[in-house]
Design goal:
Helix 3 crosses helix 9. Helix 4 links the parallel strand 8 and strand 9. With 328 residues, the chain is an alpha/beta fold. The chain has ten helices and 15 strands. Strands 3, 4, 5, 6, 7, 14 and 15 form a seven-stranded mixed sheet that branches. The protein is globular, with a radius of gyration of 20 Å. The structure holds NADP nicotinamide-adenine-dinucleotide phosphate. NADP nicotinamide-adenine-dinucleotide phosphate binds next to helix 1, helix 3, helix 4, strand 9 and helix 7.
Length: 328
Amino acid sequence: MAATRNLMRAVRVFEFGGPEVLKIQSDVVIPVPKENQVLIKVHACGVNPVEAYIRSGTYARKPTLPYTPGSDVAGVIEGVGEHVTAFKKGDRVFTIGTISGGYADYAVAAANKVFPLSDKLDFKQGAAVAIPYFTAYRALFQKGHAKAGESVLVHGASGGVGIATCQIARACGLKVLGTAGTEEGMNIVLRNGAHQVFNHREANYIDKIKEYTKMEGVDIIIEMLSNINLAADLQLLSCGGRVMVVGCRGPIEINPRDTMTKESSIIGVSLFLATEEMHECAAALLDGIEAGWLNPIVGPEYPLEQVAKAHEDIIHGSGARGKMVLLL
Ligand code: NAP
């Protein structure tokens, strides 16, 4: 929607709570970029589970109220601060963080959190790159030290981070196993790099994975729901294997002895803690876009007006089939 003078639509959160606290306002002043910032006309913005955790007020990190959620914007540069030389008005870009919030017609971002968006990707795909692929890369390589020839189980492979992990791991020479909760999700996982897929809603699927990996086990597990799966994951690992805790929504009981028998590791992953290492991620991923193996799969799409439904679904929906995006 075109902005009226210097006003725009934006989602505003004035209090923490359920999805209903996401309020759409159409008279928000378009922010002005400072020296090292850019102003982006937003075409699409990724919806990530963490944005629902933060909105609920139960997450460790809490923004100052009121705020506009949204990190993964794709759009076109509208203006740049006086010190910005890397971008100019009209450039297609995507971001891994915004200052003013991405669920809005326009967003201001620090120039060092902005990347060129290849013509190979549309805006919806651009909004599906940053948090999913940067997290996947960090989990696999920066924290998991994955190597070509190793095997990886992407436990929860049908969503944003899962598909990203499958594509990266396959392109880098790993043997890729994935799980999804529906037939459609399983097919998407197979089409995006997995050699083999399992249904995590089937009662005996852990036995099927054990049968498939025989005595060897899997070298790395990228875990999207640790509070459900961590104890079983420890049974699936190879000697020296590691579980990367990417997603977790509560506590779980495990037997630490299960790590002794294989000298296995449980390693936390936090994209939020990546600073300088972002450059390495960006270099690898921008190259993947150009080479063609990085091809984001867009799942459910919501107009801005349905932002509350999007937040409801990102937590309570099932049957992921790619990355959820908001369309502006
Ligand atoms: P998403 O798009 O909503 O995908 C969720 C995935 O979890 C789907 O593949 C879903 O499969 C799967 N799942 C559902 N039940 C499962 C089960 N019992 N076992 C294994 N997987 C199951 O979310 P996302 O953006 O990919 O994020 C995934 C998780 O990573 C979230 O918890 C998110 O908060 C976290 N995350 C962490 C970081 C970090 O820095 N640590 C960064 C980004 C994301 P079906 O729908 O097919 O059942």
